[in-house]
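seq:
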Amino acid sequence: MKTRLFVSTFFLLSLALLTNCNNQSDKSTTGTLNAETNNNKTMDKAQLTSFGKKYSEAWCSQKPASVAAFFSTNGSLKVNADSPAVGREAITKVAEGFMTAFPDMIVAMDSLITNPNGTEFHWTLTGTNAGPGGTGNKVKVSGFEVWKFSEDGLIEKSIGSFDAAEYNRQLKEGVK
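struct:
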């Protein structure tokens, strides 16, 4: 089993991937999903914004299975260059790693942007690395996930990205 710090390093921010526990500003510029995003199900801006906010709340809930519930049964979550977590059980483990490492984690949705590659979920994760073996330092990192939706309206594929070097620096030194 990967260490919690490793899981936190590569997945927290991606999973933080999401909306806003504090109902922070919605700078959403999403439109309707269309055939260019390989989705048969369409969501208008309001539906997509609601989805993103609920996803963000799930990351803040300290209930890892709540995050996985936003993914199709065989959905996947990939962060940076790491191998994807495939299936709800694997995604639950990733979320659990972040939630354990950051018991006060907040994932705020910064914006949603729909383009031909999918829907981009931009987020900012803040929290204190106070879990077992944690550094006790606060982190604040931003990143985004590119979502592809399945026909059931859930995430089929999420590819996340964040500045891992800055994240690791903050784990060691805290936010500056």
